[in-house]
Structures are given as C-alpha cells and as structure tokens.
Amino acid sequence: MRELLPVLLKSWSLIFQVAPAQAVALVGFVFLAGIAPTLAIWFTAQAIDRLTLASPGSAVPYALAWVGAMALKAILDPWSTVLQTSLSQQLARRFQISTIEKATSLPGLYAFEDPKFHDRLATLTEGASYRPSQLLLFSVYGLELFFNVVSSLFLLGRVLWWAPVLLLLAGIPRAFAIFRLEDTVWEATTGSAPHLRRQRYYLRVATENETAPEVRVFEVGPLLIRKYLRAFNQGARKVLEAQKRLAAYTSGFTLLDVSAAGLVFIVAAGWASMGSVTPGDLAVVAQVLLGLQTNLFNLSYNAGLVYENLHYMRDYFRFLEYQDPLTGASGSPTLSEIRFENASFTYPGGGEALKGVSFTLRPGEKLAIVGENGAGKTTLVKLLLRFYDPTEGRILVSGRDLRDLDPKAWRRKIAALFQNFGRYWFNLAENVAFADAGRSEVRDRVAKSLREAGAEGLLEKVGGWDRELGKPLGGAELSGGEWQRVALARALFKDAELLILDEPTASLDPLMEYELYRRFAEMAQGKTVLFITHRLGSVRVADRILVLDRGRIVEEGSHEELLRRGGLYARLWRVQAEQYDQADEASRE
Question: Of 34, 324, 556, 566, which has the fewest Cβ atoms less than 10 A away?
C-alpha cells in the first residue's frame, strides 16, 4: 500500500501537467460540491431551531441559504462532468501516445521476445482508453466524498464529540479489507493478460482479411469459438472470484458500520428527549448519519477502486522507465567495411541461431547470403541492424564495434525490405515516405521510387495520392506482389548507403522474382547490397555468395565457383534450377 502513495502523487502530477487550469478548476468545483450538502444540513438545523423558538420569520434566511447550497451543487455537478470528460480525453490521448512513443523508441527487439513484456503491454494497451479516466473519475468522486465526509463529521462532532471517532473506527476494518482485496483483484486482472492476448488473437484470426479464406475453406469458426471461450472463461473466472471475495468481506463489515451509526442516533435521541440537544441538533445527527453511512461506504469502496487503478499506473510508469539493453555512445561512422568476427547469437530462452560467423561486406559490394529456412539468415540481418547484440564475437563497422554506435544513427544509413514487411493502411505516399510524405515536393521522389520498383501503375489504380490502402478502412486493396513492390519502393526511397533485402521475393513467382532482381541490380549501382534468400535463381547478380547452414557459413564464392564445388549450394541449385530455366526462357521471349 505504501508503495502506491508515490504512484498516486505522480499520477496527479501527470494530471496537472496535462491540463493544469482544468485540473485546478475541477478540484475547486469538487470541494464546493462536497461541502454543499453539509451546509444544507446545517441550514436545515438552524431553521428548525428558529421555528421551535417560536420565531418563524427568522427561519426564512436559512431556508434561502439551503436553496442556495443545493443550487450551487446542482450547477457545479454538470460542469464538473464536462471538466472530467475533457481531462479524461486528454489523459487517454497522453497515455496512448506515450505508449506508442515508448514502444517505437526501444532500439532493440529484446523486449518483444519476452512474453511477460507482451502481457504487460496487453494490459496497458487494453486499459489505456479507460484506466486513466477511471483513476480521474474515482479520484474526483473520492475527493467530493472526502470533503463531504469531513464536513459532515465536523458538523456531527459539534453535537456529539465522540461520534466521529466511533464511526471512523468502525469503518477502518472495511477500508483495510477493501485495500487488501483490491490487490487480489489486480493480480487476477494482470494474471488474465495471457488469456486476453489469446482472445485477441482468435478474434483477429476470425476477422482479418489474410486468414478469411482458410477460415472458410477449413471451417475454422467452431474451433476459434471453443478456444476463445476457453481463454475467456479462464481469465474471467479469476477476476470474478476475486470480486466475490471483495463483496463478501465488505458486506460483513458494513454491519459494523450500521451498528455504530445506530448507537450514535439512539444516544442523540435520548439526549434530545432530556433537552441536552436541540431538535435542530437531532435533525443534524439524523441527516448526517443517513448520508454518512452511504458516503463512508462509497469513500472506502471508491478508494479501493483508486487503489486498483494505481496498480495500472504503477505498471504504466514502469513501462515508461524500461531500459533496453542496447546502448550506444556516439553517432555512426562513415560506412565502409562491415566485418563479422566470430559472431554467435542465442535468442533469449531459445537455441543458438548463429555460431561463429565471420565474413566481410565490402563497400559497393553485392553480397548474397543463402540457405534453407531456419539456417539463421534473418538472425544475421537482425544483428547487422543491431536489433540485438551478438552473444559472442563482434561486428565491426569501419573498424568500430557496432556496440559503440548509436542504433538510430546507424540505421539511418540502412534501408531494408523484409519478408514480413508492413502493409500500412496509409495512402500511397505515406506507405513509401512515411513522415516525409506530407511535403508536396516529396511526391516526385515517391513516384520515381514506385517506377524503379515496377509499381508505376499503382497511383492510378488506387485513385490518387489521398486514397488510403487496405480494405479494413475502406481503402484500395492491393495484391501480395503489389504490396511487395510498395515495400521495395519504400527501401529505394530512403536512398541509403546499405540496402538489405531479406527474402524480398517470397511472394513473387520466379519470373517476377527474376525481373525484380535484374532491375534492382541496375538501380543499386554504387551502393552496398546484402541479399538474404533461400531461392537461388537471382543471386547470380551478386558479386559473392555465402552459404549458411544451421547457423554456420559453410561455403563462399561466386555462383559459378559454388556450382563447380558441388556442395550444398550446388544441391540447392539443382533442386530449384528447372523453375529458373523457365524464368530465363520467359524473359527472352
């Protein structure tokens, strides 16, 4: 509980940072709304006492004051709601933007290989739209209740000095139980994160365009429903059981509160019958107790809800404080020679993907790294892009260890086309140029990159620069090959010194693959290029070929040299040769 107090202060500090004027106004409104009912009770008591003293006229000012107090609350409540809505919107925006900023600013991929990180991220993203709003709502309502309870206890203490002490003591066990059990509720909520990720996955499989054909052909729907229900029930059961325990404990302790309130009223009624307190004082006790029981319960329960949301806030602040293992001291050097020296890599919690890899990539060279699926080709690219650091050995860039370079500065020199490239529901210019797409002069460069990638007809097909791509948002749909050409245009647009093509033709037929490599060889003159592929038909454009097998480099040479050796490359080539001969014939026709 103590560890969440700084989280509460930090959370409210964040609220005041987001909209300071609105936050101050809201607290002021809540204070006035909280004490207004207590003032109305006091005005009521004064009016009753004036009537019992046979002075009817003197009760009117207190009646008017009562009206004023209730009118004040009636006027403030809707404007408090407006302020809460505005603050909630700004908080939700701040949380979601900061989550995007943090997730995209992590230089490496270590976190994304960690299931616990994904669980935490799932909890944060799921709650980003409502958890900050709930914290604000419950905190504001709690403040109003607090001001009301304090002013009511003060008014009650003027009649029976010991009554506030008794009522507070009676409410402590329930409040303590709520705080303790809210820990259990939050643990159940976070414990259901893996089940929540499964639910999202099953929903995605059922609704996404890519999986829709197989879902229908193989009638996957019933299986998805069974698996979704199993994940839903496993996650929901934990939360429901925790909520039941919370309800059972709070119901039991409520009887203690009612008993204390009953004792106070009985004593007050007895004293009133003896003339020790006035009729107005008895009215104060009656009205305060009626409201106080509800407000004390709501205050403790509301505090528990604030406490629950503080767990979310704690995880949110921890997420923002997460430090990626990758670091870099300075900018990147002039790109010349890149050398792998006995580099090995093991994924966190996985097997060894690369074992003692050594080779040199020279400036302006076109180097192909080939091998069967699972040979370690993509892992090698991830090390070169410095998504990870080698677990053994090192990578030198112009003689400097890649670990000593700033990852972002290093990647500015590189453009890459991945096998699993992004299909962004942006317009065509934004898909190619991203942040630079807003500048009108950039469109000529985008059009040039599209032409170089063999996608010059796409602009007319999609209906102009402003038409978004992707059916889910009502945009134009592209074929797999067209999406790939857009991704290639994206790599060419960057005009980087080093181009990496990681399985760039996986969704193209052999003829399209052949043409793409041939054109790319012409476009990449003067640049350093790294081809990664398991399809060998087009690597003949490379100056040199490395053959990777089970994480090790087993062969090196030109296409002709490797064929003469009769090793792994030659065997793979013979298996694939027929379809590439057909591609050659088609290109000559």
Answer: 566
